[in-house]
Amino acid sequence: MVIRHLLHEEIDKKKWDENISKAKNGLVYALSWYLDVVSPNWEALISDDFKFIMPVPIKKKFKVPYIVQPLFTQQLGIFSKEPINIEIIKDFIKKLPSNSYQINLNAHNYYPDAAEYPNYILSLDKPYDDLANMYSKNTVRNIKKAVNNNLIITENIDIENFILFYESVNKKLKPTDCGCMHDLIRYGIERNILYLKGVTDNENNLIAALCQTEFNNRITYLILVSNDAGKKSSAMFYLIDSIIKQNSTTNKILDFEGSAIEGIARFYKGFGAKNRPYYIIKHLRPSFLVGKM
């Protein structure tokens, strides 16, 4: 198999997006517009028959190229309609245009030499009552608590309100990261792929919010935020339950984006989500390129 390295300006983005949409492991993170926001100069590796494609989120410092996993992008790696075996993964890794890389390979890119990280997903193919029966006792208790607090789900909240609320809770967010988030949300909403939801209290104060994407029947729990009032009243439990109820009895998957932090993992597992890991490979990560690890 011949693998070609394409610079950013050489990528046929229409053809690229068609292939991501048709890939059995196609993810929203790998769409060209998404990559344009999170990694503006991304490059690509493609097989000669275009059956296998891999985005390469590359940066340069002191004219030295290095590959880094972008912000708001949990998994990338190789995408295809065809099975992706270890030999194909090895061939693509050999062709990476830098010896310095960190790449989060997707769940269909099993690679034995990679570090395995958890990601929790929930199939929504059952009626809501069946899905709710898989909730943990703690999850059921927190949903009841939210109901008793008379919380209200708000669909399609304003971008600026979401950003301001997020910044008010996460005060350490860098201005460049905030700009990236703003652009990602704006472009996603324009394409009907990204949605903003919120939870308000009985005085109409926003206390929790969620940015989710929906692509290839996969709902991704992308950006979430709760203030102290939201945490105290279990607003995020209520919001996730509403998404599950709204999308039950479909062939969709709810992707929680996982976590190795036990408390967060417990929250996801409390809704009946199962671990579907992804894989991280790293090589030659000098501090002068990537900073202190």
Tell me the Rg in angstroms. 20 Å
Average pLDDT for all residues: 92
CATH homology-level superfamily of the largest domain: Gcn5-related N-acetyltransferase (GNAT)
Order of SSEs: EHHEEEEHEEEHHEHHEEEHHEHEEH
Q: Which architecture of the largest domain would the CATH scheme give at its second level?
A: 3-Layer(aba) Sandwich
Gross geometry: globular
Oligomer: single chain
Q: Report the top-level CATH class of the largest domain.
A: Alpha Beta
Major beta sheet, strand line-up: 9-10-11-12-13-8-14
What can be said about the biggest beta sheet?
Answer: 7 strands, mixed
CATH topology of the largest domain: Aminopeptidase
Tally the structural domains.
Answer: 2
- Provide the structure class: alpha+beta
Poorly predicted parts:
none
Please provide the count of β strands.
Answer: 15
Helical fraction equals 25-40%
Structure description:
Helices cover 34% and strands 25% of the residues. With 293 residues, the protein is an alpha+beta fold. The protein folds into 2 domains: 3-116 and 278-290, Aminopeptidase; 120-275, 3-Layer(aba) Sandwich (Aminopeptidase), CATH 3.40.630.30. α2 packs antiparallel against α7.
List the helices and strands and how they pair.
Blueprint: E1 3-6, H1 13-22, H2 32-38, E2 43-47, E3 53-56, E4 58-61, E5 64-67, H3 86-94, E6 101-105, E7 115-117, E8 120-123, H4 128-132, H5 137-148, E9 152-155, H6 159-169, H7 175-190, E10 194-200, E11 206-215, E12 218-226, H8 228-232, H9 235-247, E13 253-255, H10 262-269, E14 274-275, E15 278-283, H11 287-290
Parallel strand pairs: 12-13
Antiparallel strand pairs: 1-2, 2-3, 4-5, 6-15, 7-15, 8-13, 8-14, 9-10, 10-11, 11-12
